[in-house]
Structure formats: C-alpha cells, structure tokens
C-alpha cells in the first residue's frame, strides 16, 4: 500500500510521501497493535491545534483523490 500511495502522489504531480513511523497520534496504532498494517496520508499539520486550524481546499481534494485512487488500485490487483 505504501508503494501505491507513493505512485499515486507522483501520478497526481506531487512529491512522494516519505514513509515514517509516527508517534501514535492516529487510530492506525490500534490496528498495528492487532497485527494489521496501518497507513496514514493526510493534510500537512500546519497550524495543528491552533486557532484557525484549517486545510486548504486544493490539499483536501488532493488527499481525497489519493485515497480513492489508492483504494481502487489496491482492491483491483
């Protein structure tokens, strides 16, 4: 799945997301505790937990497109 996400980012004209281990601030940690791989691809955390926190519309649409394309690619293999 990580490869699919990275390929779709390139196909959509963005730089490849870098695979990293996060601090467990997402629900993916609960999946990993049960042996289920978890991946998170979302908005850049600028202004996270601050006043006027927001996501640009273009970035939101890119993320939605990434999720749809990646799910399709994964499930159609």
Characteristics of this structure?
77 residues, mainly alpha, 3 helices, globular
Structural write-up:
This protein has about 80 residues and is mainly alpha-helical. The protein has one domain (about 1-40, about 50-75). Helix content is about 45%, strand content about 0%. The longest helix has 19 residues, at about 55-75. The radius of gyration is 14 Å and the shape is globular.
Helix-strand blueprint:
Layout: H1 2-11, H2 28-33, H3 57-75
Helix pairs in contact: 1-3
Helix content: 40-55%
Number of domains: 1
Low-confidence stretches: none
> What class would the helix/strand composition place it in?
mainly alpha
Radius of gyration: 14 Å
Distance between the termini: 11 Å
Q: How large a portion of the residues is in β-strands, by DSSP E?
A: under 5%
Give a nutshell description of this structure.
The protein is mainly alpha-helical and about 80 residues long.
């Amino acid at each position: 799945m990580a490869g699919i996400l990275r390929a779709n980012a390139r196909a959509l004209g963005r730089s490849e997301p870098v695979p990293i281990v996060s601090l467990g601030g997402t629900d993916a940690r609960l999946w990993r505790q049960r042996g289920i791989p978890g991946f998170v691809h979302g908005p850049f955390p600028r202004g996270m937990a601050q006043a006027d926190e927001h996501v640009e519309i273009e970035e939101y649409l890119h993320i939605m497109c990434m999720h749809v394309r990646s799910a399709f690619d994964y499930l159609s293999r």
